[in-house]
Specification:
CATH architecture of chain A: 3-Layer(aba) Sandwich
Largest sheet of chain A: 6 strands, mixed
Helix content of chain A: 25-40%
CATH class of chain A: Alpha Beta
Oligomer: homodimer
Radius of gyration of chain A: 14 Å
Strand content of chain A: 15-25%
Distance between the termini of chain A: 29 Å
Number of strands of chain A: 6
Number of helices of chain A: 5
């Protein structure tokens, strides 16, 4: 364990988050997502499985250290419900709360159709699976931003 | 880069620090230490080279997240000057300042003879070399402590 760090940030997850740079994309998904097969195509080839945790719990750990990207209009993308792309399900609302809670500003969410999400995820840096997230559409793209020389998110 | 973290904590160093548990020992050394050959014998087999940094700089990064061990009387050990084991050289004094600055209490320093240090280091978890530390005897054992359920160092 380490001081001043969310205890869910294990060695593998910290390694992935710190290895990423500006514009790299992290995929955070629920237990039904094809995590392993998609992760195999990513830049790092890594799937970080967080058993026993749901999406808001993993998101809060990640976003305690991970800066979102102010260079794009929507640095968080949610997977759209099939047949109802504008619907916000429970996981989407909860992710919004976590993003707001862990940020110094309000970030806009975008959305992406299910198969387009899979394709985008294959080109991401890595996949993190919240192993105990049983709710549907708990799938997000998180685009990494920049920390300036004073330690602030740009 | 990550929010709320010392920028010198790179992916490999974070991975090592988070992988360690209570009682595991980290070795922090200057540029003359036989880092590579000693690291090959450690538990992880890892040498983390921090080029461009001196011992106090690397120590401050490590100790911003790494808890020292309250279960032992001396959780920091300095390498003794050959022929003058009680002498505190500049690196020793500077390390004391960093340990005090990054802690909620005063930790006691122990000391260890040069060859005993090598032997101890071979049984440690990993070696971190401050590549730009040119001063002598900038060599330390840091014994890892415990974080309680509230996030405090025990």
């Amino acid at each position: 364990m380490l001081k001043n760090l969310n205890p869910y940030l294990n060695a593998e997850l910290l390694h992935v988050l710190r290895s990423m740079g500006h514009g790299d994309e992290l995929i955070l998904v629920d237990c039904n997502f094809p995590s392993d097969s998609v992760a195999a195509h990513t830049v790092s080839g890594k799937l970080i499985r967080m058993e026993g945790l749901n999406v808001p719990e993993v998101a809060e750990a990640i976003l305690s250290v991970y800066p979102l990207d102010s260079f794009v209009p929507e640095p968080v993308l949610r997977m759209e419900v099939v047949g109802n792309p504008d619907e916000w399900v429970e996981c989407h609302h909860e992710m919004k709360k976590v993003v707001d809670k862990t940020s110094d500003r309000e970030w806009k969410f975008g959305s992406i159709e299910r198969h387009a999400f899979y394709e985008r995820a294959r080109n991401a840096y890595a996949v993190v699976c919240a192993g105990s997230e049983r709710r549907g559409y708990g799938c997000f793209v998180l685009i990494k931003g920049v920390i300036d020389e004073k330690g602030n998110v740009v």
